[in-house]
Structure prediction request, 318 residues.
Amino acid sequence: MTAPALHDRPCPLCASLDAVPEIASRNAADGRTLADLEPYWFGIDKERRFFTYHRCRGCGLLYNRTYFGESQLARLYAAMPPNMNLVPDSAIVATQRGYFRAASERVALEGDYLEIGPDVGHIVADAVREGWFDHFWLFEPNTAVHGRLRCAAAEQATILTDMTNLSAAPDGSVGLAAMVHVLDHLLDPLEMLRSIRRKLRPGGTLMLVTHNEQSTLRRLLGARWPAFCLQHPELYNPVTITTMLVAAGFDVVEVTRSTNHFPVDFLARQAAQAFGMRLGRLPLPKRALRLRLGNMLTFAQAPRVQAAAPAVPIESAA
Prediction:
C-alpha cells in the first residue's frame, strides 16, 4: 500500500497552505501507509493515532494537512460497524430527539426535509410525527439501514446512497436540512454546504451537530480528546463553523452547546481509554446521563430574499 494521498492538503475553508501544527498523537499517522492505519480506524479500545492537526493562519480552521484519498476512505468506511453500536438505542433516540426539538423551536416544519447521513432515521421519525413536510430526501450510504430508514419515513421518502450528489432534491424546496456528525468527516465541507444551501427555500434552515475543538473537554484532555481521530479531517469551533456557513451563502447562524445522553458504562470506558487504561469486563452502571460534552448544535438560515439581479441601463432613444 502507498502512503496516504493528500499531502499538503489546502485548508478546506479558505484554501490557504499557510498552517502550523497544533496537536499530534504520540504515534502520528502522518507518513504511514493505509495498511498501517487500517487497524486504528475504529474502536474505542485501540491505541489513539491520528494525522497531525494544523491551524490555518488565514481563517483559524483546525484540519489535517495530510489525509486519506477518496478511494482509501471508501475502503475504510466500508469496513465500519453500525454507528454508535456501543451505545444503547434508547440513548441515541433521546439525544437526537433533543436535536429535533431544538429545531422545532426555531423552524417552521414544512416544505421538504433533507438529511445527510440519517442512519436508521431517529430524527426522520420525529419529523414525520411532528412536522408537515411534503417529502423526505435522505442520503444514506449504508444500505443495511435502508429498511428501518424507510419505515421511519413512513414511505414518504427518496433514499439515495451518494451523500455528495444532492441533485435529486429540487432546488429551493427544503424547509429543514440536517447533518448530525457528518460535516467533520468530509473532505470538501464547503462545497457540501453550498449544495445544501441551493436546496433550501428562502428562509430554510440547516441544522448541524459537530464537535467543538475549543470546548472545555478538549482543553482538559488534549491529544486524548476522542474527536481527535482518523475519521475527522477537520474540526470546528463556533467561529470557524460560522465563517464556513457564511462563505457558503447562509444568512443567519446560531451556535449553541448540544446535549447528549450517554450510559455511565460507555462514558467510563471512553474516559479509561483516553488515559490509556482498560476496564475489561468490570461491571458498570448502564443508566444514561444527560450531559453537555463538547459538541455544538448549529442552525444556519438561507437568505429570505434572493439577491436582486443588477439593473441593466436602458439606452435613451436617439
